[in-house]
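Listing S7. Sequence submitted for prediction.
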Amino acid sequence: MSKSGAGYNDGTLYSINPTEFKKMVDDLGMKVTSSHVGRNLSADRDEDLSWWNKATEAHAAAGMKYMVMPWSPLSGENATLDNVKRYADYFNEIGLITAGASIAFGYHNHSFEFENKIDDVPVYDLLLENTSPRHVFFQNDVYWTKVGGYNAVDYLQKYSDRIKVLHIKDVKAIGVSGTMDFKAIFDQFYANGMKDWYVEVEEYDGTPQEDVKKSFDFLNGAEYVK
């Protein structure tokens, strides 16, 4: 079973040495292959990149395949073309660092990347167009894409070589709302030759255990999910 983490801090994951963390996960019969980790640009670019070097070392020791930036400040008055290009360049530099440890670097969206536009072009598209395909991939959160007013399938078709990982999400438990066309999403994702996806249940109707089970049962019973 493959999992994604989100607890990096100062060389540790969930305050645990990364090598020890990997052993704990391995002993449970699981694998953690991806992690949400991020640092926004500061006034000191060298310090920012030094932070990413240390983070990459920790994630390599933990056996990660992906490091994914889950946020950027590119909304509201910060949603300018200059800022998009600054962050695109930053992402390219991070991707070069992680590639040195055989880890792919990606960006995860929320809805604001679609809601904020420059000359009627969503910030999401501009990030895709201004980052290097060799060094930056995109982890599409299909639910937030829909909330932002767009269809994940359209993006999977248009950017088939850039969206390499999916973040499967629904209003609450996966499949319960009936508003997400997961079949079309998975069908297109597999047609693109991709296979890695992760599930998040962000809000609950019942207990976390109940809603995670609902999500598992839905996806496990869906014939279109490989």
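Caption to Listing S7: primary sequence and predicted structure tokens for the chain studied. The chain has a mean pLDDT of 96. The chain is about 40% helix and 20% strand.
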